[in-house]
Specification:
globular, about 140 residues, Arc Repressor Mutant, subunit A, 3-stranded antiparallel β-sheet, Dna Ligase, domain 1, 3-stranded mixed β-sheet, alpha+beta
Length: about 140
């Protein structure tokens, strides 16, 4: 996990000042690196982030490439840091509690997916910029409820 000075360097390296809301958001996402909902982030901030401030910080950090957002199958926006991401990854979503976790496929499977993406490009005349795979299920906590 990065320290506050390292986060400040990352922000400044992207042309952003190291404001308290930006640092707070990065710390929350690094403390629990799974994709988190806006509600979870607000709760984790213990009142340190107002909703409007959080949305502004998300927009700024998203533009700087320090975080990314994804949309859960039920339409919730989830936020995760890119500072700790080491590889291309996908997500598993719980249909019971809306929790999401990061997963990585084996190199062989990822290569096969990339080959299929190339086939899609060729056969449809598209230029694909990225791909994601959503896996839906029920997490262990929801299974025992």
């Amino acid at each position: 996990m990065e320290t506050t000075p390292e986060r400040k360097v990352k922000l400044r390296g992207q042309g952003l000042s190291a404001t308290r809301p930006r640092l707070e958001l990065l710390q929350i996402l690094e403390n629990d690196p799974r994709p988190q909902s806006i509600e979870e982030i607000i709760s984790s901030s213990s009142g340190k982030l107002a909703l409007s401030t959080l949305y502004r910080a998300i927009s700024e950090l998203l533009d700087a490439g320090l975080i990314e957002t994804l949309v859960s199958p039920d339409g919730k926006t989830l936020v995760e840091t890119t500072l700790q991401a080491t590889a291309h990854h996908h997500h598993v979503f719980c249909k019971g509690c809306d929790k999401a976790i990061d997963i990585e496929f084996s190199d062989d499977l990822e290569k096969n997916i990339e080959a299929e993406v190339k086939n899609i490009e060729i056969s449809n005349g598209w230029k694909v910029s990225d791909h994601s795979i959503e896996i839906l299920g029920i997490c262990e906590q929801c299974t025992v409820r």
